[in-house]
User: Which sequence fits this backbone?
């Protein structure tokens, strides 16, 4: 080794992950499981802010970016709700409590819960697995209830069985004062007496006033129609936040994959205000 | 300034390589690329452009980041050791030096890439001025003077001598270590050569290439141009342009399962490849036109938008020489210029 | 060359074809690019000269999906590739109007540069009309000359012949360019000891940067999704994690195109590292010829292909090994 002291200044590279141990697995829907992850010595692997993501990996299988679905106010563990849709997620779904994986992060920006969103009436609109990033914010808001105005949660899925975290929605969120939950499923189903129809049309039916800030997350097609509906209802783009999702490898704006316009979704996102998205080339 | 006879260069290389790894242009199977110096290496300083740029010295085509071991269900991670030996890159040209400056913007910005930084901290750049630029060169368009490279040491080959001028502390330290081989020299021979070379630069066909109108402010206008649809047509979707480029820095992270543990390595990737942006549930760039556009928009619009106007191109002209379909950044810039002029 | 432009204009004007696939003049003497021309005005940039080495037949896979007919200019060797693609149902004969163009040998700019000629400003003697034995090259460092024959692409020295195997009409004269024995280089390698062979290929293939240019240009590599692009495969595209994989990529590719490779030489033309990739393919061609009788892929679409046709009398290649 040379006699320089450069090495004294080197931090462990951000690409080197930490080890996480799976401490609980909840089957949310036929293809979504929520994984509770802790550091092997207990406690959280790292701290994060609502909306931030982390790279979860099974060495030899793959590594991908997932939003952290638990709230930062949860001091014991972190959770990831993961839908089975590829090589890595297929493998994750075969894992058991006690198995280890690697986690690195947190990456990206967050929903501005301590700045722009403070004191606002909030309207959460989610479709399918899109509830995962918003759940982090919703629980943050519940734990800091005094800082926010009214809260409406509009959530829809293909079917009753595909509603992620139904138990928490009905038993925790719906019972909070000043929080209204509006659920919908795409098609009629035995045992469902709630609303039936797509999220954007239910949104129009509910006809919220535009004195709210909307946080939207779900499949691109849903986001597109929800945004159009909100504009129709008199919301401005500055009142709407959403998240973008592109292929990511590094998580720190260097590998080039999630570059869109002059932004890197992993670093400058995933949370964007809709007027910011308008400035990006149409490539998401 | 110092000088050393060309005939004594093997002694210089030997001397440097006694204490440090030395990378320089070496001919292997008829092609010249930067490679480690050995006694029997066929060193070719006359080669203007190595096939690949010397960026691999700092950002290797493939490098292991860490190894994961699994015992029962317990994982452990062993990070790869960082570069801890000084090394010398000899014969790097002015354009490629600038290329490293571009890479610095990416890898040394927060969060710093420590693998890259360790190499930068330990790497000593000995640049070699160009004497006979070629028709594919257009470094001047990026404000680069190929006769006056700015690195730890600048050198010039003139007649039977190599002239050596240390420019930084690192360069001075290296100079001290090999000074016994040098004689003091004045810079008159160098100046004369510089003038001759500059006169040729003025005559290069791409000398007048103008980048006017390429900056972060024209994003939508350039992105939406119908020209891309025409320009990309012959593109074969290979990665030649990106892999020979001194500034392309996109990478992939992949796993390699060895008998003992999983090596997670990163390797160069190309935005020209069909799977570059592919996710388990979709792809946001499905056509080659989009991928082709991304490469040039990134170099000429997105990168300058984030880096105070610095382009992610240094005019080395490797893509001009190597694209199988004769496409390149110059043709793109010219096509937009022509379109602008026709309006 | 004007004949080609005139004929293309006629065919566009009378509605026979909807577009023309040819070569567009570059901004230097030696860098024309494959291009589509949709109108008479576009054709002002059309060029056909000694640097139009690019084989346009693979582009016809995409052109076959377009509306209407595409006029494509094919050199004699390119027509073998087109025929082979036809045999594999990758191109649509009804969507192509083929003008077989003559060829006087195509040039390799890398070879010109290897002669020490740099700073090239102009090259004369490359047109079809004025093709001559000596090229006159204007450079920033003075006027140079070199022999046309010496700087031809490797494929032209061992040309399959100047007859087109598929065409609607032909234009322009060819000239014979053969001056080497096609399998000579292969024989030289066959004579090497196993260690020498290994070293030879090790040295050549260690230059590979996995840019995939050879695969992407290859008319025989027409899979919609290449196994090397699969995300489920450890060495998908990308760089080599160890020296074995670079060999695997090229060896698998050579096996995959065996019996279908027309020896068009595009792989070697486009390789940025000058790897003599055609030698792999040519070894297979030589073996196939020896084992199953002379066969030229793409020559006759009705002929049974040796590797997809079985007879009880077929010999087992392994018998030869010892």
Assistant:
């Amino acid at each position: 080794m040379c006699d320089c002291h450069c090495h004294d200044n080197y931090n462990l590279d951000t690409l080197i992950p930490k080890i996480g141990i799976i401490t609980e697995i909840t089957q949310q829907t036929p293809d979504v499981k929520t994984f509770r992850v802790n550091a092997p010595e207990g406690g959280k692997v790292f701290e994060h802010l609502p909306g931030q993501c982390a790279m979860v990996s099974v060495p030899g299988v793959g590594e991908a970016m997932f939003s952290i679905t638990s709230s930062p106010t949860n001091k014991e563990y972190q959770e990831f709700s993961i839908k089975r849709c590829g090589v890595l997620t297929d493998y994750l779904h075969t894992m058991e409590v006690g198995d280890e994986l690697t986690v690195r992060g947190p990456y990206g920006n967050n929903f501005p819960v301590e700045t722009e969103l403070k004191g606002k009436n909030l309207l959460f609109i989610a479709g399918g697995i899109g509830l995962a990033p918003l759940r982090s914010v919703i629980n943050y808001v519940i734990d800091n209830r005094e800082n926010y105005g009214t809260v409406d949660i509009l959530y829809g899925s293909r079917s009753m069985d595909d509603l992620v975290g139904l138990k928490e929605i009905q038993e925790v969120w719906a019972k909070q004062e000043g929080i209204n939950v509006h659920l919908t499923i795409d098609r009629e189903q035995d045992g469902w007496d709630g609303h039936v129809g797509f999220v954007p049309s239910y949104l129009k039916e509910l006809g919220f006033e535009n004195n709210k800030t909307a946080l939207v997350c779900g499949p691109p097609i849903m986001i597109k129609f929800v945004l159009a509906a909100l504009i129709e209802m008199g919301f401005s783009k500055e009142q709407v936040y959403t998240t973008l999702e592109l292929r990511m490898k590094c998580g720190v704006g260097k590998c080039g994959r999630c570059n869109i316009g002059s932004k890197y979704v992993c670093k400058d996102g995933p949370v964007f205000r809709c007027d910011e998205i308008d400035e990006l080339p149409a490539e998401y | 300034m110092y000088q050393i006879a060309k005939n004594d260069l093997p002694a210089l290389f030997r001397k440097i390589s006694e204490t440090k790894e030395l990378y320089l242009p070496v001919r292997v199977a008829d092609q010249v690329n930067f490679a480690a110096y050995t006694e029997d290496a066929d060193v070719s300083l006359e080669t203007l452009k190595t096939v690949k740029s010397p960026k691999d010295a700092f950002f290797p085509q493939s490098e292991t980041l860490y190894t994961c071991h699994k015992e029962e269900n317990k994982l452990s991670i062993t990070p790869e050791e960082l570069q801890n030996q000084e090394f010398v890159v000899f014969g790097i040209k002015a354009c490629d030096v600038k290329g490293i400056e571009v890479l610095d913007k990416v890898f040394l910005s927060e969060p710093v890439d420590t693998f890259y930084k360790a190499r930068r901290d330990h790497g000593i750049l000995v640049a070699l001025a160009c004497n006979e630029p070629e028709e594919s060169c257009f470094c001047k368009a990026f404000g680069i003077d190929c006769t006056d490279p700015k690195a730890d040491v600048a050198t010039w080959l003139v007649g039977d001598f190599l002239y050596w001028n240390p420019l930084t502390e690192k360069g001075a330290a290296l100079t001290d270590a090999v000074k016994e081989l040098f004689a003091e020299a004045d810079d008159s021979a160098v100046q004369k050569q510089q003038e001759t070379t500059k006169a040729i630069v003025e005559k290069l066909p791409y000398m007048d290439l103008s980048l006017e109108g390429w900056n972060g402010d024209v994003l939508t206008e350039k992105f939406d141009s119908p020209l891309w649809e025409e320009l990309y047509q012959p593109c074969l979707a290979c990665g030649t342009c990106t892999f020979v480029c001194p500034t392309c820095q996109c990478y992939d992270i992949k796993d390699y399962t060895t008998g003992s543990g999983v090596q997670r390595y990163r390797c160069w990737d190309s935005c020209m490849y069909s799977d570059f942006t592919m996710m388990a549930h979709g792809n946001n760039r499905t056509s080659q036109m989009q991928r082709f556009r991304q490469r040039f928009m990134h170099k000429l619009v997105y990168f300058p938008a984030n880096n105070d106007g610095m382009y992610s191109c240094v005019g080395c002209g490797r893509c001009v020489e190597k694209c199988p379909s004769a496409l390149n950044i110059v043709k793109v810039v010219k096509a937009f210029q022509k379109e602008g002029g026709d309006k | 060359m004007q004949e080609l432009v005139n004929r293309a204009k006629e065919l566009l004007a009378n509605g026979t074809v909807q577009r023309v696939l040819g070569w567009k003049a570059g901004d230097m003497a030696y860098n024309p690019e494959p291009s589509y021309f949709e109108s008479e005005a576009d054709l002002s940039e059309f060029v056909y000269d000694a640097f139009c080495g690019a084989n346009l037949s693979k582009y016809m896979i995409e052109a076959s999906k377009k509306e209407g007919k595409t006029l494509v200019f094919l050199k004699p060797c390119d027509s073998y590739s087109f025929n082979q693609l036809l045999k594999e149902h990758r191109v649509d004969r009804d969507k192509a109007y083929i003008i077989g163009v003559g060829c006087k040998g195509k040039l390799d700019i890398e070879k010109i540069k290897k002669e020490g000629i740099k700073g090239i400003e102009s090259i004369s003697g490359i047109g079809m009309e004025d093709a001559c034995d000596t090229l006159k090259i204007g450079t920033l460092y003075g006027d140079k000359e070199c022999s046309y024959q010496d700087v031809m692409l490797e494929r032209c020295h061992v040309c399959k012949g100047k007859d087109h195997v598929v065409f609607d009409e032909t234009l322009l004269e060819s000239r014979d360019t053969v001056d080497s024995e096609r399998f000579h280089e292969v024989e030289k390698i066959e004579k090497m000891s196993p260690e020498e062979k290994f070293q030879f290929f090790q040295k050549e293939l260690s230059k590979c940067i996995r840019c995939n240019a050879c695969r992407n240009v290859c008319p025989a590599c027409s899979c919609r999704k290449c196994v090397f692009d699969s995300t489920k495969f450890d060495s998908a595209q990308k760089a080599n994690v160890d020296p074995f994989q670079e060999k695997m990529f090229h060896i698998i590719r050579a096996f995959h195109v065996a019996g279908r490779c027309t020896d068009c030489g595009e792989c070697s033309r486009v390789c940025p590292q000058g790897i003599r990739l055609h030698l792999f393919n040519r070894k297979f061609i030589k073996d196939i010829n020896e084992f199953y009788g002379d066969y030229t892929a793409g020559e006759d679409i009705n002929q049974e292909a040796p590797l997809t046709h079985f007879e009880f009398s077929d010999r087992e290649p392994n018998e030869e090994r010892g």
Q: What stands out?
A: Chain B has a mean pLDDT of 93.
